[in-house]
Amino acid sequence: MCGIVAYVGPNQAYPILIKGLYRLEYRGYDSAGIAILDKDIKLYKTKGKVADLDNFVKDKDVTGTIGIAHTRWATHGEPNNANAHPHFSNSKKLAIIHNGIIENYSTLREELITRGYIFCSNTDTEVLVHLIEDIQIHENVNLMEAVQLALNQVIGAYAIVIISKDDPDLLIAARKGSPLVIGIGENETFVASDATPIVEYTRNVVYLDDEEIAIIRRNQELKIKTIKNIDKTPYIHKLEINLSALEKGGFDHFMLKEIYEQPRSIGDCMRGRLNVEKGIVSLGGILDYIEKIKNANRIIIIACGTSWHAGLVGEYLFEELARIPVEVEYASEFRYRNPVIYEDDVVIAISQSGETADTLAAIELAKSKGATIIGICNVVGSSIPRATHAGTYTHAGPEIGVASTKAFTAQVTILTLMALMLADKKGSISKSRFHQIINELEKIPSKVEETLKVNDEIIRIAKIFKDSRNFLYLGRGLNFPVALEGALKLKEISYIHAEGYPAAEMKHGPIALIDEKMPVVVIATNQGVYEKIISNIEEVKARKGIIIAIVTEGDKSVRNIADYVIEVPDTDELLAPLLATIPLQLLSYHIAVMRGCSIDQPRNLAKSVTVE
Ligand code: M6R
Questions:
Q1: Is 377 among the catalytic positions?
Q2: How far apart are CA 580 and CA 460, in angstroms?
Q3: Which CATH number is correct for 446-597, 3.90.180.10, 3.40.50.150, 3.40.50.970, 3.40.50.10490?
Q4: Ligand 1 lining (C-beta closer than 6 Å)
Q5: What kind of fold does domain 250-442 have according to CATH?
Q6: Mean pLDDT, consecutive 10-residue segments, the chain of 612 residues?
Q7: DSSP string covering 362-385, please?
Q8: Which residue among 49, 225, 294, 607 is the active-site one?
Q9: For domain 3-244, which CATH number applies: 3.40.50.720, 3.60.20.10, 3.20.20.80, 3.30.390.50?
């Protein structure tokens, strides 16, 4: 959460910084600020979105070729002008931006107050800038050394960039637990929370590692040291992001664009990994570990939010196809409950961003207990792929809408490929069943394309239910995680309360909620428990609930009892989540649009949850 961007070079910093903030706005959008160093540090910040900041500085002096900028997702201190970043030191000679949480900030703050420092905000970040200034003054060290000493006193997570009035050619950046990418251009350097603000200027980037400090001096080569003063050699990676992936491309919102991208993103995810003619499924990134996974005592899937829902689909697939026991855990719970982990356990961490703090901490915990860790991530070069033993990228392309859509279907696709690959290696699946599933899997991109044609029907249904106060989503088996995902999508972008539930569990409580005002979305595609779900629909109808059913094309039984029916193409039961999810994404999207909600940047949320 929070996006940070910095620049030093021959060009004016403001246009680069503000554009960078727009690109990073998905990370947080309750306030924004900018500091540009010319003779003095000119610092402007305001509550609201990046556009508010852009407006605010219209008549201000933003001249300068070095600067830092920040878009905030509040942790400590409410969103207001004072708590927005950058933060000045008391002398106004230093300005800092920060993404993360300084956990021991209150102790540090008390100490600094007793030493006479005046705080202008309620943030944890402000302690850092005062501490660095205090060290500079009392230890008589340069800025980099002061940052080093300060960071050795800090507990928590940080990605920071600092500028100093006394050294107008220098940016100091450092990270621990929060991401930071450095772009190396022609006589210019960029720093950002991810590569999106950098890619149009340079494709050469360095990913900073935990406890590393970058010393970025105008017209000089990048230097990296650790907070313990060990020199590191910067390793330059080549970015492969397509610039058009960062634009809306004619769609009203990134979310809609990303929903419509799914035929392509699922196809990209399978490319080079699925060969139907030869009957091969192979994920290159995990090949070295395949024996280990195949012989695992059990698989533990750790993730948060939508990625956790994908993990639940994975549980069904691994158990059904590869006959390996699976547990799916919220990373945030797993990390704090002293879980029993054995060396022959394999942990699969799923994350779109690759930066989720809880998932990262859960990985470290499992690693410390000897488990093998496999990552499934979307963002190339992010922290989770670097923290795992092996892994595979989903290749869905940048997902900018805060509500995850194409990343989910890509994660489910990878889990399907992984389960098939393991099943084939283990011999836990017959050859004919293996071929039947991979044949169907290859057709999924075109079937998703077909599914997207339900859009007009969904708009009609959305108009009817846009003012509902509650929704229930029901599914069984593989469709239970789809129900959870549908409910989450509706909650996060339309702010309507929605619950996902296993359909048969409804009678153990939630059935009490049902009356003639309650829309119940039932995912009732062809599956083993189809007859059972019809009984569950009858139970809802008997209590006057309104049924919106997602069914397989040609379905008759559900059509006879449901109030609204949305058809998806027929496919293998194991692949149904890849299709059934699409109408639910569209339903939440259109309801949220009709309610006037902020689609790509829903209130209180951020795309990358880099704080616990
Ligand atoms: O980047 P990650 O996949 O680790 O993110 C996990 C969740 O924060 C994320 O899925 C969140 O739930 C989305 N907003 C859901 O749409």
A1: no
A2: 18
A3: 3.40.50.10490
A4: 304-307, 351-353, 356, 359, 402-404, 488, 492, 605, 609
A5: Rossmann fold (3.40.50)
A6: 94 98 89 96 95 96 97 85 95 96 93 95 94 95 97 94 97 94 96 94 95 97 97 93 82 96 96 95 95 95 98 97 97 92 95 94 95 95 92 94 97 98 96 97 98 98 97 95 98 96 88 90 88 88 93 92 96 97 98 96 81 72
A7: HHHHHHHTT-EEEEEESSTT-HHH
A8: 607
A9: 3.60.20.10
